[in-house]
Write a structure and sequence with these properties.
Layout: H1 5-20, E1 34-44, H2 59-72, E2 74-76, E3 84-88, H3 89-97, H4 109-122, E4 123-129, E5 136-142, H5 144-173, H6 180-204, H7 207-220, H8 225-239, E6 240-242, E7 249-251, E8 254-255, E9 268-273, H9 282-288, E10 299-302, E11 312-314, E12 322-333, E13 371-385, H10 391-401, E14 405-408, E15 411-414, E16 429-431, E17 434-437, E18 441-449, H11 468-471
Antiparallel strand pairs: 1-18, 2-3, 4-5, 6-7, 8-12, 9-12, 10-11, 10-14, 12-13, 13-17, 13-18, 14-15, 16-17
Helix pairs in contact: 1-5, 1-9, 4-7, 5-6
C-alpha cells in the first residue's frame, strides 16, 4: 500500500537525524544538540569542486575555494526544507566582532601568559600567496595538534553514525521483521568496539589538552575583551580573500577530513524500507524540518540545471519503496571564526552602526542567524526501488526525461547544481526496479542553534556614559 508522501519524507528525514545524531550509548555521551536542514532535492558536488587547499596553488583552486566558502556559509532561510538566503555566516560573524561595545577590563601579566600558552596549543602561523596581488600573507590557523584533534573527532562521529544506522534499522523493523533482533545482536559487538576504539583515539589525540586550552581562552576573554576582539578581527581579515573568477570577497572555509570521498571509512550505509514509514511527532519535526503540506510530492522537476522557485512537484506511488545510500557527515572548518563569540556575554552590538531589529539570534528561532551550519550531509550511491509500472511513477519518469533538473525527496536525480560552473554530469540510470544515482550530492546540513546573541552581562564594567539599557538587545526573556 502506498503511503502519504509527507509521511515518507518525514520518516526518512527522522532516520537520517537519528543516524547522524551524537547521542553515544556506548560511551554514555550525549554530544551536541543539533538540528537538520534537508535540501529538496540534493545539490550535486564533484571532487573537482572540493579540491583546494589553504595555499590555493592555482586560480582554479582559488575559484573552488571561493565557491565552497559561499555555499558552506549560507545561513538557511526559515523554511521547512533547506533554502538559501542572502546572508552568510562570515558576514554575520563580522558584525559581531567589527565594532562591538566592550566592558572596561584588562588582563594581568599572569593571565596574559596563560592566554598565550592556550593560544600556542590551539594556533600556528601559516603563510600563503594572494593570487590577486602576488603578496605573501601570514595568518593563524589551527595548530597541528588541534587539526589532529578535529580529525579524530570526525572519525569518532563517523563510527558513531555506523552504530546508530544499524541500531535504528533494528528499532524500526523489529516489530515486522523477525530477523531484525538477530541481525542487530550479530552486528552490535563489532560496531560498539569500533566506536570505543575511535573515542579512545580521539582522547589520545589531545582531547583534554585541547578542551582545557579552549576553556582557558574562553574564560580569559571576559577579563581582556578589547585584546581578544582585536585579535579576532585580525585573524578574520587574514582569512578574507577575493572570490576567484566572480570578484566578491569570502572567508576561506574548508572541510575535514580532506578528500573524504577517497576513503570508505568516512561513509555509512543507510537503508530505509517502506515498513519504517510512520507519523513523525511535532517535537522531531521542529528539529528536522518538513511537516505537513497540502499537495506535497516526493518527485520534483525543473526546466533549468540550477535550483529555481518555479519547480513542479508530483506525488509518488511509494508502495514497496526501498532506499539505500551511503552517507558522510562532513564537518565545516572555519579557522577564522571563534564560535565562543556567539555564546559570550562580554560584548554588545553597537546600535549606532546596526539596527536593533538585526540581532544575531533571539535564542528561539528568530534573528539574522538563529542557526549555523556545522556539517554537510553528503550522499552517494543512492538506490531508489519502487513500482516502476505504477501509473503515477510512469508519469514522473516521463517528466524526468524531459527535465534538466529532477529529484526525489532529498536526492537529486538530475541537475540542481549550486553554481553554473559545476561540472554538469550528475544523472541517473534506471531499470525495471527503480533508479540508481552514483554521484555525490549534499542532501542537507547539520545545524546548531545560536543562543541569545548578543546577550551582554549587566554586571560587567561597561563604559561610563553608556546606560546598559542602550546596549541591551530587545530580545525575549
Amino acid at each position: 500500500m502506498s503511503s502519504n508522501d509527507n509521511d515518507v519524507m518525514n520518516a526518512l528525514m527522522e532516520k537520517i537525524y537519528d543516524v547522524v545524531g551524537e547521542r553515544d550509548p556506548v560511551n554514555n555521551r550525549h554530544g551536541r544538540d543539533t538540528y537538520l536542514s534537508i535540501s529538496r532535492p540534493g545539490i550535486p558536488i564533484t571532487p573537482e569542486s572540493l579540491t583546494f587547499s589553504f595555499l590555493a596553488s592555482s586560480l582554479k583552486e582559488a575559484d573552488a575555494a571561493a565557491g565552497f566558502a559561499d555555499f558552506a556559509n549560507i545561513v538557511p532561510a526559515d523554511a521547512p526544507f533547506w533554502q538559501p538566503s542572502s546572508r552568510r555566516v562570515f558576514e554575520e560573524y563580522w558584525r559581531c566582532i567589527d565594532q562591538p561595545i566592550l566592558p572596561v577590563t584588562a588582563l594581568s601579566e599572569a593571565e596574559s601568559r596563560q592566554l598565550e600558552k592556550a593560544r600556542a596549543v590551539l594556533e600556528m602561523e601559516t603563510v600563503f600567496v594572494d593570487h590577486n596581488t602576488g603578496e605573501i600573507r601570514k595568518t593563524n590557523t589551527e595548530s597541528m595538534l588541534y587539526q589532529r584533534y578535529l580529525e579524530k573527532e570526525a572519525a569518532y562521529l563517523t563510527a558513531l553514525d555506523g552504530y546508530n544506522s544499524s541500531f535504528e534499522d533494528y528499532v524500526r523493523r523489529k516489530e515486522t521483521d523477525p530477523n531484525a533482533e538477530l541481525i542487530w545482536l550479530k552486528r552490535e559487538p563489532a560496531l560498539s568496539k569500533r566506536v570505543r576504539s575511535a573515542f579512545k583515539q580521539w582522547q589520545a589525540a589531545g582531547m583534554m589538552h585541547i578542551d582545557s586550552a579552549i576553556s582557558t581562552r574562553d574564560n580569559l576573554e571576559r577579563r581582556g575583551a578589547e585584546r581578544m576582539f582585536d585579535e579576532r578581527r585580525q585573524r578574520y581579515l587574514q582569512h578574507v580573500r577575493s572570490l576567484g573568477a566572480e570578484g566578491a570577497g569570502y572567508a576561506f572555509t574548508k572541510y575535514f577530513p580532506d578528500r573524504f570521498w577517497e576513503s570508505a571509512d568516512n561513509w555509512t550505509r543507510v537503508s530505509f524500507k517502506h515498513n519504517e514509514v510512520h507519523k513523525v511527532d511535532e517535537h522531531t519535526i521542529e528539529r528536522i524540518g518538513g511537516g505537513a503540506s497540502v499537495g506535497f510530492g516526493l518527485w520534483s522537476f525543473g526546466g533549468s540545471l540550477q535550483r529555481n522557485k518555479d519547480d513542479k512537484y508530483a506525488r509518488c506511488d511509494t508502495s514497496g519503496v526501498n532506499i539505500a545510500f551511503s552517507l558522510a557527515k562532513i564537518p565545516i572548518r572555519r579557522s577564522w571564526m571563534d564560535g565562543g563569540v556567539l555564546r559570550s556575554r562580554n560584548w554588545a552590538l553597537n546600535y549606532d552602526v546596526t539596527s536593533r531589529a538585526e540581532n544575531i539570534s533571539d535564542g528561539v528561532g528568530g534573528g539574522t542567524m538563529p542557526l549555523i551550519p556545522v556539517a554537510l550531509l553528503v550522499a552517494r550511491d543512492v538506490q531508489l526501488s519502487f513500482d516502476m509500472s505504477s501509473e503515477v511513477n510512469t508519469y514522473a519518469m516521463e517528466e524526468i526525461s524531459g527535465s534538466l533538473r529532477a529529484g526525489w525527496g532529498p536526492f537529486s536525480v538530475r541537475g540542481n547544481y549550486y553554481r553554473k560552473s559545476e561540472k554538469q554530469t550528475h544523472d541517473f540510470v534506471s531499470d525495471g526496479k527503480g533508479l540508481e544515482i552514483k554521484g555525490m550530492q549534499v542532501i542537507g546540513f547539520v545545524l546548531e542553534r545560536v543562543p541569545k546573541c548578543p546577550d551582554p552581562d549587566p554586571t560587567l564594567n561597561w563604559p561610563a556614559g553608556i546606560p546598559f539599557e542602550d546596549i541591551a538587545p530587545d530580545l525575549p526573556e
